[in-house]
Amino acid sequence: MTTVLLVEDEEKLRENIAELLQLYGHVVEQATNGKEALYRLKQLQPDLIICDVMMPQMDGFTFLHTIKQNLSFRHIPVILLTAKVAREDRIAGLKQGAIDYLTKPFLKEELLLKVKNHVQLKTDVTAIICQKEGEKAILTVQFVKRVTELLEAHYSQKDYQLCTLTDGLGMSRSAVQRNLKRYFSKNFLELLKEFRLRKSADYLINTDLSLERIAGQCGFGSQSYFSSSFKTAFACSPLRYRTENQFLRQINET
After folding, report:
1. Residues 150-165: what's their mean pLDDT?
2. What is the C-alpha separation between 35 and 191, in angstroms, rounded?
3. Nearest CA to 47 among 27, 66, 61, 21?
4. Residues spanned by CATH 1.10.10.60 within the chain?
5. Contact (Cβ atoms closer than 8 angstroms) between residue 56 and residue 33
6. Suppose 171 and one of 24, 97, 125, 175 were both cysteines; which one would form an S-S bond, judging by CB atoms 3.0 to 4.6 Å apart?
7. Which CATH superfamily is domain 3-120 in?
8. What are the helix (H) ranges across the chain?
């Protein structure tokens, strides 16, 4: 159901328009001037605004300019009602962000068609945005999952490089680097090192392998580099980490 905010100071005209729109299934909220309309906007999120130009306290142009500066309201389409027919007045409204004009007096069919068309356009645009966001979310999950799979398969290789990852993803180097930053907040080397350290922590808890073997299994060039990197990441030495987390191994084995 479509909600229309109708802003018009002439009571009889406002009531006639509201009655017509309600007859065709629209929910109509009313305001008598731009200032009142701004207050009403804080209470609802209309699909469309129909606004007179000449009003007391705050005219239609000022109201339009105000909402187009607000990120919460600027997306709402606005149709201006005006008795002015001068070209410069119509252009002024369009420059402020109005999507259409209705010149008084107007035919009810013209009003209904413009409302229908602009509401449908807003609905279509919203649907496209939602679809794109959904597709983007799917691509994000796929990218993160595939990167994780490739790291799982190759983290033990000491010479594993970004070019090998890009080949596995079937993406350009720049695209991979950009997406790693976007979805992992790390570059390739930072992500690979973090992955290797997490794996080494698992080895320390769940196996009796020596530090040298763990370093080799996790792709570190030397035991000393592994130990210093581990201490920086976990704030303790690998051996201390193993000792303090032995209870986790017992839990995993039960």
Report:
1. 93
2. 53
3. 27
4. 155-253
5. yes
6. 175
7. Response regulator (3.40.50.2300)
8. 11-23, 34-41, 60-68, 87-96, 108-154, 162-169, 173-184, 188-206, 211-217, 223-234, 238-244, 246-253
- Give pLDDT tens digits for 31-68: 999 999 999 988 888 989 999 988 888 988 899 889 88
Convert the pLDDT of each residue in 211-233 to its tens digit: 999 999 999 999 999 999 999 99
Q: For domain 155-253, which architecture applies?
A: Orthogonal Bundle (1.10)
Place of tokens 């129909």: 50
The C-alpha atoms of residue 57 and residue 12 are separated, in whole angstroms, by: 19
Instruction: List Cβ neighbours of 54 (8 Å cut-off, separation of 6 or more).
Output: 9, 60, 82, 83, 84
- 8 Å CB contact between 242 and 213: no
Specify the pTM: 0.53
What average pLDDT does the segment 190-210 reach?
92
